[in-house]
Amino acid sequence: MSDATPTVSVMQVMSETARVLITVKASPQPSAKYGDTVCVAGIRVDGGRAEWIRLYPLAFRWMGVEQQFKKFDLIDVEVRRETKDSRPESYRPDIDSIKIVKHLDDWKDRQPFMERVARTSTCALSTAAAEHHDAPSLGMVTVKLVERLRVEPFGEWSDAQKARIAAAANLAPLSLFGDATKTPPELKAPRFIARYEYHCTADGCPGHVGQILDWELTALQGRLRRETDADAIAQIERKFLTQMFAPGRTTSFFMGNFEDARKRHSFSVLGVYYPPEGIGTSVGLFDLDQDG
Q1: How many Å apart are CA 119 and CA 11, to the nearest integer?
Q2: 12 falls in which pLDDT band (50, 70, 90)?
Q3: What's phi and psi for 149, nearest 5 deg?
Q4: Sorting pLDDT into bands at 50, 70 and 90, what band is 289?
Q5: Is 173 helix (H, G, I), strand (E, B) or coil?
Q6: pTM of the model
Q7: Residue 284: pLDDT band by 50, 70, 90 thresholds?
Q8: DSSP string, 63-113
Q9: CA 26, 225, 190, 239: dihedral to nearest 10 degrees?
Q10: Among candidates 228, 149, 242, 152, which has minimal Cα distance to 190?
Q11: Is residue 44 pLDDT above 70, yes or no?
């Protein structure tokens, strides 16, 4: 009887190697413990899977260059189930184990993986999350109609976020991630916040408002820092509306919710997938787990 408890404990924290196609890198958020953290998610493809996985915590800007993967990189990483987070897709990654296998640069290279991912609707995700704490917290949603992209000034970090940023200034000597001698610059608040007003494909969808949390939006704003507000907004709209929803593209959102149980029903846009319609594939199903 006394041997049972340690055995269960070991099983709960057992690590495994996951091969993940990274599809989501959200904008960094202030963290007193890790400096700042990024919500990273993707499709787990080892063992014939096509399942969502969330990797957290990842203090991405503090990691070594050799570990800083890009969206649509295929990586191998040791993970353990995150027992403090009831969302079923959440795993804690071993930062030092990250190995970048290859980058999938073309839509035709990504499609063999993405076409195997089940589609859902924001209505279905929100309803399930409101009823069950362990309902899916990540999903790929086909967009039926975008009514508007609303871009507004962000303002500044909240007092709580400012306190976390101040606390992070003391983290560099701790060597939490990567090379402690390369401390990233202070995390700056984004200039704008952007939200899609859209309808998903569910029957009778009343419409949704989804904030864009994609790091790609933050990076674009950084490149536009010398532009006027009007010009910067125009370029954000060109990228996230005109280009991503251009005729001839099949556009979907990567959706995710929050760990806070009170906010589980609220889903944000973590990324956008917008391949050309009718795109073919260049990888066979039996090649998906191979190193190529």
Answers
A1: 32
A2: low
A3: -110, 115
A4: low
A5: helix
A6: 0.87
A7: very low
A8: S-GGG---TTEEEEEEEEE-TT--STTEEEE-GGG-EEEEE--SHHHHHHH
A9: -50
A10: 152
A11: yes
90-93 and 51-55: which strand pairing?
Answer: parallel
What are the Cα distances from residue 232, in Å, to 192, 194, 210, 225, 241? 9, 12, 20, 8, 14
Q: Where are the alpha helices (DSSP H) in 154-279?
A: 159-168, 215-223, 229-237
Tokens encoding 68: 């800083």
- Locate tokens 């760990």: which residue? 259
Q: What is the pLDDT of residues 131-166, one digit of tens each?
A: 998 999 999 999 999 999 999 999 998 999 988 888
**Rounded distance between C-alpha atoms, residue 63 and residue 218, angstroms:** 19
- For 74, counting Cβ atoms within 10 Å of its Cβ (0-12 exposed, 13-18 middle, 19+ buried), the class is buried
Over residues 217-241, the pLDDT tens digits come to 999 999 999 999 999 999 999 999 9
Q: What's the rounded Cα separation, in Å, for the pair 249 and 6?
A: 53
Distance CA 245, CA 275 (A): 10
Say which DSSP state 234 is in: H
* Residues 143, 285, 25: CA angle, nearest 5 degrees: 45
